[in-house]
Protein: Lipoprotein
Amino acid sequence: MKKRLPLLQALLIPILYALSGCGNQPTTSDQQATNQEKPADTYVSGDDYVLFERVRILDKNGFTEPQEAYSILLPTGWKSDGEIKWNAPGSSCAGTFSQLTAKSADGKFSFEIYPDVIYSWNTSQELRQFNQNNSSSSPNCAYREPMQAEQYLRDVFTREELNNAELIKIEPAQAVVEQMQQSNEESQRELMQYGAGQMQFDQTAVNAEVRWPDGREGLVVLGVTTLETVVPNIYTGTSDKIYTTQVTKRTVFTYPASEKERAINQFAVLMSSIRTNPTWSDAVKGFWKDVRGKKHIAHVGRIKMMDDQTRTIGQNAIRNGEARLRSMDSDLRNWEERQNSQDRIHTNFIKTIREVENYQDATGKVELTSAYNHAWSKGDGSTFIMSNNPNFDPAATFQDQSWKEMKKVD
Structure:
């Protein structure tokens, strides 16, 4: 067994991905020039390859000590700022919300994951009037009619967060819808345990392209889940419907219009590289499930697990998760190096942009983006180079014979 890095160490693990051929199809003369092998020391970072580093986003608010929430590959030199925000149980917008912004050194490329948004609505005219007059202001929650993903993108997201961007292309993301449906079925089973009545989920997701007047373009993905619940109206003897709409995975990659192919390739790398820490995720899910199951918990104060009960929930989940990881092998980040992303929804979003491929290396089967034609591995399960240049050889370029070319497998 290989050694495993401790969970909270090594905040940056460099991973190389080589990029080339990021334009239109070359002419015959251009292709001949490309196929002429260059001296190993003349391959240029940014032209022949791009260095990616794994950036780790910490939850600094939910637990007594910072915990890694998830990680993502970003090109070297990019500046990033990620945050996990907790709204306490009993507040008007209770929940855990994540956001990330990243930008290239020259400011031409940017990547942003917006926090989820939750909308509430119901068919009772009296309750609608009350909620509209008494709803509190929150960036994550609002009182608004239910809508599907395309309507939200057209009527809300492009106008508000994207500063009236022009929508130039939109298509459904069916693979994402199927993944969302599986998650919603789990939620439905839990809600039924609490005595919830008749309910129905509707899930939609889209990939889109947008444009701004200044010459920038953007790749956009998002998903929307709406829960419809039928509840009795004790005043009229009839029933009403309550709607809860959650807009999730709101992600935007911005780039100069002339760099579209390069942007698509990088976006595919970023989206398929997201790895959620299952220890953190289990603790968060366990906390909110406990809150839902014990509605008498009316006050937790500031999150950070301040009272004994909530502190125990979080600490036990983290402790148990870390013990499981240590028992596998103390130095190998098994959860990060698995074949599939921990968050399948992110990977499914890129399937209409760039497919994913299965490759084989010394550690087994590995899932990587298909944006590039060639892949190499160091055999450690976490370090790879990808390139579209058939002559690029990382062993010669970096004077490191541990690089081995990987083969595509089913």
In short: The radius of gyration is 23 Å. The chain is about 25% helix and 35% strand.
